Every structure is written in structure tokens, then in C-alpha cells.
Amino acid sequence: MINQLSWKVGGQQGEGIESTGEIFSIALNRLGYYLYGYRHFSSRIKGGHTNNKIRVSTTEVRSISDDLDILVAFDQETIDVNYKELHENGVIIADAKFDPKKPEDTQAAMYAVPFTEMATELGTSLMKNMVAIGATSAVLDLDIQVFEEVVQEIFGRKGQQVVDKNMEAIKAGYEYTKEQLGGAETMQLEKADGQKRMFMIGNDAIALGAVAAGCRFMAAYPITPASEIMEYLIKKLPALGGTVIQTEDEIAAVTMTIGANYGGVRAITASAGPGLSLKMEAIGLSGITETPLVIVDTQRGGPSTGLPTKQEQSDLMAMIYGTHGEIPKIVFAPSTVQEAFYDAAEAFNLAEEYQCPVIMLTDLQLSLGKQTVEPLEFDKVEIRRGKLATEALPEIDNKGYFKRYEVTEDGVSPRVIPGMKNGIHHVTGVEHDETGKPSESAANRIAQMDKRMRKISNLKFNTPIHKNAPHEEADLLIVGFNSTRGAIEEAMGRLAKDGLKVNHAHVRLVHPFPADEMMQLVQSAKKVAVIENNATGQLANIMKMNVGSHEKIHKILKYDGNPFLPQEVHTKCKELF
Amino acid sequence: MATFKEFRNNVKPNWCPGCGDFSVQAAMQRAAANVGLEPEDLAVISGIGCSGRISGYINSYGFHGIHGRALPIAQGVKMANRDLTVIASGGDGDGFAIGMGHTVHAIRRNINITYIVMDNQIYGLTKGQTSPRSAAGFKTKSTPAGSIEQAISPMELALTAGATFVAQSFSTDLKDLTALIEAGIKHEGFSLINVFSPCVTYNKVNTYDWFKENLTKLGDIEGYDPSNREAAMQTLMQHNGLVTGLIYQNTERKSYQELVSGYSETPLSQADLKLDQAHFDKLVAEFM
After folding, report:
1. Which DSSP helix (H) or strand (E) runs through A477?
2. What is the pLDDT of residue A263?
3. Homologous superfamily assigned to B4-259
4. B 194-223: CB under 8 A from A
5. What is the mean pLDDT of residues B183-191?
6. Which intervals hold domain Pyruvate:ferredoxin oxidoreductase core (chain A) (predicted)?
7. Domain A465-574: CATH class, spelled out
């Protein structure tokens, strides 16, 4: 019996690799297992190696695993590229069609199963992925009935015959492989708890969080790995009266979102690095006009087009400092899918309360990694609109303008939306006075600049740092942000076994940086390891700027396009001692 | 009911004396009053440049954005509040150079807003460089030997992009311009009004007199039919684009707001933000 399994299916893009993984994982998720799936794909539609690595566990998992139990291969390239991940008891299940060759330097077993041939015999070679699922089930000694419900849902609209054929294909793969295995030991998974849980990608959670928070408009331009957010919202917003506009470019997306927020609806835009670069001027407009703005940046490999389908965390500095001039801005980074949901909802509150751009930073692994999620509590979603006027406004004398930019103690001014009587004021990206009229007076400049910057000096953010710091005096503090959390958490367990006292701080609020809280954690550790997917150590540099202790802070970097594995974090941290 | 005077504020424009933009401002104020708006019902969204300042000179809600982006901002405002009257405005550099992409797409999207371009064929605020509307051979600080690029024909371009309301006017024709803006506001869809608004400081070629000599009123062309797109195109080509009046209007095509599925009849800005628990539960179940 095993309580954890790592399964990978690979082949050429466009061959149904994704749906094989999808059917396999949905069925197991429904049995109550916790899953974590990560897709390796390229920026093309057909061809090129792709794979989907899925981890199945009886407890929550948030990282891809170090090694592999089962590799399902639709071509030789899949074997050649991935076999080294297989541990010695691992199994390769390959389509007999391409006459698979097992590399000499692996202990793993290999079974050639005629996926394509059996599928073709049953009617169409398209069902070869079903045969592969059946073959996997044989190795896992899994009752193939668990797939029936999912197959019914996916193919039901094509008629019962199609459903039956697909189930037959699964059965054929199962029986053939069972025979091949003979008496060989299977990898039987421990029974899961049978709880129904959500199975979703980070982008789904962000979009759902936006809906829950009352977002009713999105303007966006398609880009990997952000498009799922707009695709979800265009499906769901019409039922709520809202909509999504796919704009002509990234600049239109952000400026339309600014216009919509100014107009009084909660609106969002989402993109990745190249899009964010184009949005920079408009982010400054939101800053100086104090117009709420929610932007999601799903980081991917940069610069320029970079590695568009690969993991990276290299937009950090650009998101904190991006736009010319100086504005108040809030940048935060969820580290799990659950957090992505709550954070997306909270982003709208912060944008309205502080009347400034709010950037929600994710990374490709968090945005696209599909995982089992503990129930989301809708009650926890609050709607707070800050100083937005909701009552009738007092009359203003003789065309006097409403003081939309009134200098206040907390820096936040009353906000009205167009259409409100007695609320007329001007909005401009030019420096302006309390009513929004352009002003170049030095005293006004200082008053308005100070007012704007003051807004976020008292920012209230729930959990600026996710802490797991059991040790008052630690040997090591590990720091990360976004999706590295899972790998760090697993590595911590191993480091503890090595006898090290390790604390973990995952930065959730990136800007304004929670310096005081981080300072305490740094001071109580002998060494600090900052784990990040970039080449320059951007978070480490921000740490140094904010908390000093330069000599203690070590950068552990990975920028080859792949997520950190727990074992990499473990090894690199150990090397510090 | 508000008169045009109520659309005046107490800000003194920083335009040069004699600038064509003064008349455009007056025409907008009159049109707003004539169609029965109250100042708070109107949002003027403008770009950057001399003309972009116009949103600050009208007593209404106004948003002076960034260079070239008046249109996407204006479309966002309208999508948020379909009951507002939204006018986007700016210069020819704003709309036909840096913001040209948005102009073409706003035209084909057909959201119910009005776009007024103050076309002076020059960059004024940056003190006299060539514009995409400058004629070939036009000498400016950035084209000392004369422009060697072809001028854009915005009206022809609008027709090919699928515009449903295309009009052109001259800033001194206050009455005609006011009537066109009114018609544009009333039009159910995107209305584009290009206004020749002479720059008295930097454009010594396309002057008031030059326009008076070269412009043809469509009203003077016998049998001109603004519902005929093909004839509109021909007329524009025959007159090198130098015509004024309603060039084309398509009253059959529905606006974006009418076509978009599920779009709320009441302004989104007034929507109840709270989702009910049952709706949320249904969304959650789809992921199980």
C-alpha cells in the first residue's frame, strides 16, 4: 500500500495528453484523494513534447513530487525525456505502436500496451488515452468503475454509444495490462476519505473570487498564463448582468478597466509580464487619479516573450516599482489556490478602500497547477467599498466642484461616481488640487503627493507573511513567495530530520513590505535562505533593502523554467551548513 | 432643465486666443443642454494634447486620461453605467496616431458613445510637429523638409472599419456642429465626429480661410444620402475628405450594449455586489 503516487502522461501536443490527465485526475479527486497536477507544455498547438504530471495523495499536497511512480508514454521522446524521474520500482506503460525502447540505465519496469491498436479496433484511435487510463488502473489495481461517471459527463452529450465505447477502451487497457503484469506487485493506493472537494487551477480560484466579490466587468487581452481568468468570467458574468470585453490590446484592457472602475463597477484585468509592461503608464494614471484598479499578473518566464509557458517569478521588482513617477500601490502574492480565491476577493476591497492600483501577483505554477482545494468559505468574503459616497450629497455653491481629492488625515478622500448629483469634480493625470483641477503650485504638489503616499502607510492586510516559525532561535529561516510554498514546506520536514531548526516565512504582502514582522524573523535565525524562480534574487534584494542583515541572506535561485522540487530546496538549504 | 450655461464651469481654458477648440467646447455644451442632459448625466473623457484639456472646461463629470487612451477609458465608463452620456474627445494625434488602434476598434465594437476629434493637423501642445493628418509636404519642426508620409483619411477609414455614425464639421459652424453632436449623442452606437479645429499658432497652412475655401457642405450636394455607404465613400474620395455634415449613419445595426449577452438593463454601477449563497454553491459544485 502506498499513500502517495506520482503519475505522468506524455506525448505530442494535440494528442489528447491533457484530457488523459484530466479524466484520470477528476476521477481520483472524486474518490477523496488530494491531487496536484502540473503541465509541461510549449507555446504551440500541435506537436512538441508535452506532459502532465499528477501527484495523488491521501493528504494535501502543494508541490510536484521529486520522482515518479508511473510514466505513461505515447512516444519514445516521452520516455527519453522523463525516465530519469522514475524511481527503481517505477513503471513505464508505453504504446506498443512506436516499439518503445527502455533506456539501459533504469531499474524501472516497462510494459508495452497497444493503446492505439486497441482503440482503433474499438472504433477510433482517439480513444488510445482511455486504453492508457485502463492500463494505469491495472498497475494501481484500481476498479475502473471509478471512471464511469467522468466519462459519462464528458461524452454523454455524444450519446450512450460513445460513452460505452470509451468505457470499453478503459476495460480493454485494464485487462491487457493485468495479464502482462502477471503476478507482479501492484501499487495499491491507500483508500481516500471519500470527501468531495474542489479541483481547480489558481486562475479558476481568482476568477471565482472576483465573482464572489461583486466584480461584474473585465477587460482583457489573451495571454498565457492568464487567459483562463477571462474565459471563466465570460462564461459566468452574463448570468449576473456583467460581461467581459476582449480588447484590441493590453493598454485598452487596463484603461477600459480604469474607466469601468471610475464608472462605479468593480472591474478587473489580468495579464502576464508582456502585458504588464504595456500597462505601466495606465497604472500610474490609476495611482495619481486615485481610481481603484485590480490587476492580476500571472508571472511567466521573461523578459520579452521569454519562456511563455514556463514557471518564473521575475516580475516582482517591475510590479513594485513599475510606472514612472511615484504612486501608492499594493502588491500581494497568494501562495495557495485557496489564498488566491480570498485574495482576489480582497483585492477589490483594498482597491476601493485605498483608491489605488492593486496588483495580485501569481506565477505560472500557481495559476495553472491544478489541485484539490479544501472548501472555500463564502462567508469570509467581505465587501467593503471604503469612502465611496452612497447617500445623496449636499448641494455645492455656484459650480463649485466636489472635493474628490480632499486632503485628509489618512490620505483617503471621499469618492463619488459619475451620475451622482452634486458630485461633479475633475479627474486628471495632471497634478491637481482638491477638486481635481490642474495645479502646478508647489504647496499643492506636496500636499497631494503626501496625501496619496500616506494612504498605504497604514495598510491593513490580512496575514502579510504566512509564518510557520516554531523555533525561537532557528538555524535557518526559509523565505519565498507564490507557488514555492509547497516545495519549501516539504523540504522543511526533511531539514528537520537532518536536525536543523527551520522557520518558514512566505511573503504574502510584497508591497508595502512588512519590514517589522520580517525583521523579527530574520533576527531570530542564524541564516536566511530566499527561494525564488529568478536569476537575480529579487525578493532577497527586497529583503536586504527592508531588513538589512545582508550577511545572513542567501539566494537560492532557479530560472530554468521549471518549478522548484522539494529535494532541490532541501539540498540547497543543507549546503548552507 | 439645464441650459448650456450650466455646462460652463469657472475654469479658464489655456488654449491660445482664436483656437478652434473654443467653439467645439461651446458646441458640446449646447448639444448637452439641447438633448436634455443635466451636468451630472454627462461624462467627458479626454486624451492628452491641447484639445484633451476640454474635459476640464465643461461642468460635467470629466476624466482627462493618458495620451491616446480616451476611447478605452470612455468605453469602460459607459459599460459601467449605461445611463450616462459619454463623450470621448481629443486631438488628431491622440486619436489617429498614438490611439489609432483604439479608434478603429471602438468603431467596430460600436459601444454607444460619441467621439469628437479636434483635428488641427498639427501637434500643438508639443509646439509644432507633424501629425498623421498633416498633408504630404507639410513643413514642421519634425519634418523640416516637408512630410513624406501620406495623411490619414479618418472618415474613409471609419467607413471601412464598420462605423455606424460618421460626421465631420468645422469649428466655426457652431450651429451645424451642435446639431451633429446632438445627433451623435442620440445615435444608438458609436458616433465619430471629426471637427476641423484650426491651430492659429502652429498651422499656417490649414487656417480658417483655407478651410472656408476648401470645405464642401454635404447639404449643398443634391440628393446626398447619408444612409448610402458606398456613395459616402465616393463623395469623400471625390472631395479629398474635405466635406462637412453627416457623412454616414446606419440605424439598423445594434449597439454593443444591445448585443452583449446577459448585459444588465440597469447600470452595472448600481448592481448589488453580493452574490447569493446558492449561486456561489452552484459555481463551486462545477469544480467537483
Report:
1. strand A474-480
2. 98
3. Thiamin diphosphate (ThDP)-binding fold, Pyr/PP domains (3.40.50.970)
4. none
5. 98
6. 474-569
7. alpha beta
| Residue A445 burial by Cβ neighbours in a 10 Å radius (0-12, 13-18, 19+) | middle
Question: Confidence class of residue A183 from pLDDT cuts 50, 70 and 90?
Answer: confident
Contacts A438 to B, Cβ<8 Å: 56
Q: Assess B4–A contact: CB distance below 8 Å, yes or no.
A: no
Angstrom distance (rounded) from CA A217 to CA A145: 42
Residue-wise pLDDT tens digits, A465-522: 999 999 999 999 999 999 999 999 999 999 999 999 999 999 999 999 999 999 999 9
Nearest to B59 among A29, A204, A399 (CB): A399
* B54 at A interface, C-beta within 8 A: no
Asked if the Cβ–Cβ distance from A426 to B62 is below 8 Å, we say: yes
Domain boundaries, chain B: 4-259
Cα–Cα distance between A102 and A80 in angstroms, integer? 8
The whole-angstrom separation of Cα A321 and Cα A512 is 11
- Burial grade of B282 (CB within 10 A; 0-12, 13-18, 19 or more): exposed
Instruction: Select from B275, B278, B257, B274 the least CA-distant residue to B266.
Output: B257
B44 touches chain A (CB under 8 A): no
pLDDT digits (tens, 9 = 90+) for A353-405: 999 999 999 999 999 999 999 999 999 999 999 999 999 999 987 778 999 99
Residue A321 CA to residue A187 CA, distance in Å, equals: 51
CB contact under 8 A, A281 and B66: yes
SS3 A398: coil
Asked whether the beta carbons of A550 and A574 are under 8 A apart, the reply is no
Of A113, A413, A264, the closest CA to residue B82 belongs to A264
- The mean pLDDT of B124-137, rounded to a whole number, is 94
Domain A199-380, classified CATH 3.40.50.970, yes or no: yes
CB pair distance less than 8 Å for B61 and A430: no
Residue A46: predicted pLDDT? 80
Alpha-carbon dihedral sign for residues A404, A408, A410, A411: positive
- Angstrom distance (rounded) from CA A379 to CA A286: 30
Question: What's the topology of domain A4-181?
Answer: Pyruvate-ferredoxin Oxidoreductase; domain 3 (3.40.920)
Mean pLDDT confidence for A2-15:
92
Which of A170, A103, A96, A100 lies closest to A138, judged by CA? A170
- Per-residue model confidence (pLDDT) at position A567: 97
How many residues appear in chain A? 577
Chain A contact probe: residue of B5, B15, B66, B113 with most A CBs at under 10 A: B66
Question: What pLDDT does B226 receive?
Answer: 98
Q: According to the model, what pLDDT value does residue A99 have? A: 97
| DSSP assignment of A59-122 | S---S--SSEEEEEESSHHHHHHHGGGEEEEEEEEEEGGG-----TT---EEEEE-HHHHHHHH
Q: Could you check whether A4-181 and A465-574 share the same CATH topology?
A: no
Band of residue A19 on the pLDDT scale cut at 50, 70, 90 = confident
* CA gap B2, B5 in Å, rounded: 8
With 80 as the cut, is the pLDDT of residue A43 above it?
no
B:86-115 residues touching chain A, CB 8 A cutoff: 101-102, 104-105, 109
**Over 90: is that where the pLDDT of A44 sits?**
no
Q: Indicate the pTM of the whole model.
A: 0.97
ipTM exceeding cut-off 0.95 for this assembly: yes
Mean pLDDT of chain B: 97
**One-letter amino acid for residue A555 of the chain:** K
CA dihedral A388, A392, A395, A401 (to 10 degrees): 20
Quote the cell numbers at residue A240: 449576473
